[in-house]
Automatic annotation (TrEMBL):
UniProt signal peptide: 1-33
Domain of life: Eukaryota
The protein's name in its UniProt record: Ig-like domain-containing protein
Transmembrane segments: none
Organism: Scylla paramamosain
UniProt-listed InterPro entries: CD80_C2-set, Ig-like_dom, Ig-like_dom_sf, Ig-like_fold
CDD domains, per the entry: Ig
Length: 230
């Protein structure tokens, strides 16, 4: 980046630029400053998986002083190339750094848990003379998938026209709660046939969700003698 007494160079107009600089009597000072281009933080991750967080910056001639990672306001990783041991780790619940896969560009977190969710921020600082610092942040939500496929309860093996179908679909232990839907013969069930239940929280924070289905069987529900629910 080039700065001229607070004016930035108008692109493609070098003549005006030079004229201005002469008129204003400013000498051109080349300020090279590090630039944080982007960070890469997965928006969603599943519990038990490792996560790589990337901090992409250009030094632009600056010398790197440090790269620091925060979750919320808490620092958990600092890379200082000038130190004999460049990596410093600070304990944080749900954040376990794998130092063998971390450096000045990336931080790898060991298998994440529900506690790992939060806003992650990378801050890059240049050494003298600029001491320029930039930072960027992004949210990561860690989700816990249901233990197994949803189960259907309350169904009978056979229904006749005029029978009432009343069944439940239950998805055990996930976070956030699973969102469920019923299909009758592969068609999404009408809202008035659904019975909503509030998700139930387990002691460990996982939620069990349930959706009921209630309707009276009509001739239109039978496709070549079959009624399929899922
Ligand atoms: C469905 O679940 C609700 C809530 O647990 C329960 O009250 C109801 O009896 C269940 N119905 C069937 C058909 O299993
Ligand atoms: C269940 O957990 C969710 C997510 O943490 C929370 O929003 C909700 O209020 C809890 N519900 C109960 C009944 O504790």
């Amino acid at each position: 980046m080039r700065l001229l007494c607070g004016l930035s160079s108008p692109e493609g107009r070098p003549l005006v630029f030079v004229l201005l600089s002469a008129l204003l009597g400013c000498s051109e000072v080349g300020v090279e400053a590090l630039k944080l281009v982007s960070i890469s933080v997965p928006a969603h991750q599943v519990t038990g998986k490792a996560v790589e967080l990337d901090c992409n910056y250009n030094l632009e001639g600056d010398t790197l002083y440090s790269v620091t990672w925060y979750r919320g306001r808490d620092e958990f990783y600092r890379y200082t190339p000038g130190d004999r041991n460049p990596i410093d780790i600070f304990e944080l619940p749900g954040v376990a750094v794998d130092t063998s896969l971390s450096d000045q560009r990336k931080v790898t977190l060991r298998p994440v848990s529900l506690l790992s969710s939060g806003k992650y921020r990378c801050e890059v600082s240049a050494d003298a003379p600029s001491f320029h610092t930039e930072s960027r942040s992004a949210e990561m939500l860690v989700v816990d998938l249901p233990d197994r496929v949803p189960t259907i309860t309350g169904g009978r093996p056979k229904y006749r026209v005029g029978d009432e179908v009343h069944v439940n679909c239950t998805s055990l232990r996930s976070r956030p709660a699973a969102s469920l839907m019923w299909y009758i013969n592969n068609k999404q069930a009408a809202t008035e046939n659904l019975v909503e239940y509030t998700p139930v929280n387990d002691s460990d924070g996982l939620e069990t969700s349930r959706l009921g289905l209630r309707f009276v069987v009509g001739p239109r529900h039978f496709h070549s003698g079959e009624l399929r629910l899922k």
